Structure formats: C-alpha cells, structure tokens
Amino acid sequence: MVVNDLGGSVTGTGSDVGPAEIVTSEIRERGGVAVADTNSVSTPEGGAELVAHAMDSFGRLDIVVNNAGIIQDAPFADMTPDRLDAVLDVHVKGAFNVTRPAWSIMEAQRYGRVVHTTSLSGLVGQAGQTNYGTAKAGLLGLTRVLALEGKDSGITVNAVAPTAVTRMMLQAMENATDGASDPESLEIFTSHMRRLDPDLVSPVVAYLAHETCSVTGQVFSAGGGAVSRLFLGRTPGIHVPDLTIEDVAAQLDDILAEPGYTVPMTTAEEMVHIFQA
To answer: What's the structural domain count of the chain?
Structure first.
C-alpha cells in the first residue's frame, strides 16, 4: 500500500510528513507492506508522482482509493472563487490527477479497482457547503463515466458516501453551529458520535476494492454499520406531445410522483424512456 497524505490541516493549509508516516508504521506493525507519500494530489504532477511511487515500489497498481479532501465552508453569499477552487482542486481534480495516470496502467493489465469518496453534502445538499457539495457531486459524475469506460477492461469504479467522526466532520459541524451548542443537543450528538467509527466505513471500501467485487458505477452510503445504495431515480412523469408551460404547472404533482420510478444507468437508457413515452 502507498499511503498518501500531504499532512495539512482540514482547510488545506500547511504540510507534515507525520500522518502518512504514522499510518505506514501502523500497517507495517500489523504485518503489512506500505510506503509513505506526501505528494499533493491537487496538481497533475503530484498525482503522477504518487502513481510513479506505487509502480517504483511494487511494480503493479491494482487499487486507487481517492479519499483526499479539505473543507472551506461559508454561506454562499460569502463564498469566494479562491475557496471554490481550493476545494475543487483537492476533491475533483485530485481524483482526476491520481486516477488518470493509474488508468492507463489498469487498462494495460485489464484489471483495476477505483473507489471515490463522495458525500451526502453533494448528493442531497448541505447549507454552507457550496464548494464542498459541488465537488462531491462532481465525483458522482466521474464515478459513473469511468465505470462505463472501464467496463470492458476489467476496471470497476464505485463511490462511498461515508458518515463517520473525522477531523473534517468535526470541523464542518463546528462551522455549522459556529461553536455554539446547548448541553442537551451536545449530549445527544455525542451519544451518536460514538457509533460513527470510521472503522465501520472501511469494510465497504475494502469490498469495493476487492477482486471478487463486480459491481460498478454505484454509490454506497456507509456509517455506523449501516450500508445502503444511493441512486438517481426517474419518475414516470407525464407525456404531452404539444407540451406547454400550463401543462407543466397543472401536472406538477404527477411529474414529481415517485411510484413506478426507474433508475437509468446511462444517457442512452434515459433516451429510451423518453422515446417510449
């Protein structure tokens, strides 16, 4: 295993070789083989160096887990281009910068496993996280496209939306509450926090990275021992040959109604539904 961590803060500032070295040492102590890497995945050069480090160390690359992330939360009115770019660079471009050089290796060997870390903040939304939510939603698109492109080369690509107590989660919650919380709410939150051990997310990631896993293009919610599939659904909706704005307004409830929904896996499948209608 190559353990990559720039070692910066949750907001993306600074760097420290310590975190990557600590995890590498823990793996070795348990009988594993690991090397530490401190390249920044936010640049194409950093991603390429990371992949090269893996190949130089082990001569083969089978699994990529894109888990790098930072947060720079702010209400949309206070969101700046710099805050947006910084988060997109790590989450979306970081996944691209690492997976791109790894992809050619996986295609050549006709095998690979890619796991992205997305978030409910991007898939269902979270106030105050315009940049983070946008980045995490972008990883959904990357997951779906790469799953289709890798299908004939033995490469599976999936995503996990974790709920776990991490430095980033604690920082995000502090931002959301602005450091204020009444004792009763804090007690309830703390009791649930004990159940959100990151160890209860790892089995899902490990399975999606395993050679026996054939599922691809899916997103899994994981936290506290609960695992679910997340998906985009298409309602049966309406079909009016000469559709007008009045038709949309009058039949909005039918458009929104969920019973009978389908789950298109490609744009072609969605077009089929449209033509059938």
So the answer is: 2
Q: Give the pLDDT of residue 274.
A: 87
User: Which residues are CB-contacts of 19 (< 8 A; sequence separation ≥ 6)?
Assistant: 5, 7
Q: Domain with 159 in it: what CATH number?
A: 3.40.50.720
Assess whether 132 carries a catalytic annotation.
Answer: yes
Residues 207 and 98 in one domain: yes
* Residue 191: pLDDT over 90: no
Count other Cβ atoms within 10 Å, centred on residue 36: 21
What's the pLDDT tens digit per position in 135-155? 999 999 999 999 999 999 999
In the numeric block, which tokens belong to residue 138? 């972008």
Residue numbers of the domain that contains 154? 39-230
Out of 111, 132, 207, 261, pick the active-site residue. Answer: 132
Angle made by CA atoms 106, 111, 116, in degrees to the nearest 5: 70
Single-letter amino acid code for the residue at 178 = D
For residue 175, report the phi and psi dihedrals to the nearest 5 degrees.
-65, -40
CB atoms within 10 A of CB 113: 21
8 Å CB contact between 98 and 146? no
Rounded CA-CA distance 3/19 in Å is 9
pLDDT at 25: 97
Together in a domain, 130 and 46: yes
Domain shared by 238 and 160, yes or no: no
pLDDT of residue 170: 63
Q: What is the pTM of this model?
A: 0.88
Pairing of strands 219-223, 226-230: antiparallel
97 and 208 part of one domain: yes
Nearest C-alpha neighbor of 93 from the set 41, 158, 51: 41
Question: If you search the block for the tokens 């089978």, which residue do you land on?
Answer: 62
Predicted confidence at residue 214, as pLDDT, reads 96
Task: Kindly report, residue by residue over 48-103, the tens digit of the pLDDT.
Answer: 999 999 999 999 999 999 999 998 989 999 999 999 999 999 999 999 999 999 99
